[in-house]
Design brief:
It contains six helices and two strands. A hairpin with a 2-residue loop joins strand 1 and strand 2. The protein is globular, with a radius of gyration of 14 Å. 20% of the residues are buried.
Length: 114
């Protein structure tokens, strides 16, 4: 039997927790890609879209951090774990926060290297 997944209630989600979870560029990329897939994606799909080579266990660790911070919700679909961003809940609780962070992230990643 699979372990149950725990998700914090939206009222327990904090700005500090969100900022900590998004302090890693890989997790920022995961959230950015998940926002473009409202139905959700699993770790393998995300790493393919991000063009990253990482062990599945590392990807799962990133997803766990995002889930525990309240940024994503995950559900089991057979043997897969599909996740999506809690976009509307986060926008209600912290208007503009996630959009602002991701806007800056996109600017940083689109700059040419110096």
């Amino acid at each position: 039997m699979a372990r149950p997944l725990t998700h914090p209630h939206i009222d327990a989600v904090t700005v500090a927790g969100i900022l900590h979870a998004l302090s890693d560029p890989v997790r920022l990329g995961i959230v950015n890609k998940l926002l473009k897939s409202p139905a959700g994606m699993n770790c393998t799909q995300t790493t393919l879209k991000l063009k990253l080579a990482m062990p599945k266990s590392t990807c799962s660790q990133h997803y766990r951090i995002l889930r525990e911070a309240g940024l994503i919700v995950s559900e089991r679909r057979g043997v897969d774990l599909s996740s999506r961003v809690r976009a509307s809940e986060l926008e209600t609780r912290f208007p503009g926060l996630l959009a602002s962070i991701l806007k800056s992230y996109k600017k940083e990643t689109s700059r040419p290297a110096r």
